[in-house]
Amino acid sequence: MKLFNNVISAMVVGVIFLIIVPLPTWLLDFMFITNLAISLVILLTTMYIKRALEFSIYPSILLITTLFRLALNISSTRSILRNEGYAGEVVKTFGEFVIQGDVVVGLVIFLIIVLVQFIVITKGSERVAEVSARFTLDAMPGKQMAIDADLSSGLIDEDTARQRRSDIQREADFFGSMDGASKFVKGDAIMSLVTTFINLIGGILVGFMTGVGSFGEIMQIYSTATVGDGLMSQIPALLISVATGMIVTRSASENNLNEDVIHQFTSQPMVLIMTSLAMICLCFIGFPVPQVLTLSAMLMGLGLLLMRGQTQRKAAAVAAAEGPSIKEEVTSEADFYKNIDNVYNLLNVDQISMEFGYSLIPLVDEGSGGSFVDRVVMFRKQFVQEMGLVFPSVRLKDSGQLNPNQYSISIKGEQVAQGEVLVDHYLALAPDPDHDTLEGIETVEPAFGIAAKWISEDRRVKAELAGYTLIDPTSVIITHLSEVIKNHAHELLSRQEVGNILGNLRKTNEALINDTIPAIISVGTLQKILCNLLREGVPIRDIETILETLADYGVTVKDMDMLTEYVRQSLKRAITHRFAEAGQLKVISLDAGIENQIMGAVKKLDTGSYLALDPQTIQGIITTTSREIDKIKDLVTTPIILTSPIVRVYFKKLVDQFYLGATVLSFNEIDTDVKIQALGNIVLPQ
Known about the structure:
By secondary structure, this protein is of the alpha/beta class. Helices cover 62% and strands 10% of the residues. A hairpin with a 2-residue loop joins strand 3 and strand 4. The N and C termini lie far apart (96 Å). The relative contact order is 0.06.
């Protein structure tokens, strides 16, 4: 096998010897036919591949085939000049078939083929290769940034990113090589004209010197040989030129040339079979039958053998995918679930899934031009940068149970939100809800519950001039999905994802992880603390600070709520920047009397602590809090209640029971650079 891997190197050395060693005419015939077959294989391969990198050895193959044709030209010229114009049956057949008794017509046809190849195909391929090399190099930074974005968002792992970066570099190397390799074909076309001139003029001189015959006979003999030899050189060259044009209009290899030639040529068995059939057709125009049939049989046998091997490998892969426990064809649902492993598959739950009515499928389907998947990818990147959590992939599927324009969002298999959008419409939000005069279909924006209208394309300009905010259907769904993920982020943080976060930190601060986990806190405890932070919208991106805080307090403090409070205080800069606007924090303060009542009602247990207030006091606190929130709801987007550090966690649990939608912060969580403006005070009535 190792010897077979070096066959290409041996062939290149053999080509060099062709230039020096005279060949018998029967072997020269076989070489000409082989040259034509190789050209056909290369041409068909460039037609079958999908990417240039699938045939990354092409620049090197171009050099080898050009050298092979030049060596055959030299060998055939030697035979023409030494053997009275005879260079084998292939050259003779081609010359007689094209000339057909008219030397001028034959020479003109040969000249046209050379000029077409030189001026049209080769020149165009050279220009395309040059432009492709330039644009490929210009596009490299953008492609690298896209790979880094996918890696940061968790769409790909490090190995995939490394492979994609390598492919980009190889692609640039490939088109750079093609820019230079196309010069080989141009030089070959020029050399064929020179060789033709030498064969014709030199043959006539040799004919007169050796007394082959009259002037007419000499012209007939050497012009036939010259045209036949030139065509047998230029027809394969023309095929190679076409292949060059194909591959540069669609980068270098990582393996050595021998391995890549064996692998890439044998990966398309249908190419070998079609080439074999094309070779057989040459017998009908007078090509020597033994050589043609020999090469055709070899190509056919190899193609069929490779195709059979591919079929067997596919069958083995299918059998492996089905599993060793499935021995016979499944004929019914009952038979399928006889295998208990298939029943266990029903227990798998998608972390995030979305279902769409059939009218919304074009928005999601990339094949129909939908950009929904790309928008989800970009939101994942944004969410990681904001919150520090890589949420899992979103499972998308159609549903016949929903209305055509409806969609639903599920978390861990249970529906948590539903919305409705109209394709080919825009969601219009009025600048002043009290003066909404635009005609449209009344609706409610699904993410925030704002009154809105669906308007058609023809009313778009009018709405924009009137100051309406217009949102396309895809953006409406993405916004709704983003809000759902933000509200349920604490449910999406699994222990496996915590392990991924720790693994990423281990690359830069392994000592911190080794000192903290599991010596001070377990992964499960860390997960619960991170979930507490996400539940209140606190980013967990600074995992290093979180672990350092837990390492400081985790030895003496075992209450998870208290550990969370210490972590929040360490993240005060991130919390402040998240809730402050223009360096100012507008809040509602909590009266000291209420704080004292709350602290007096805290009951501590070994497993934690809880608040034991009487119902009347709770009702009074909630009523007063709701009233103060209503007073400022037009001034702030999210109401913030400011408490002392020791009360914050208990007051937050209290207001969350009544879904007031307020953010509760403590004084220790506010950065000193931020100005605090109190808009109200929560005081119990006397």
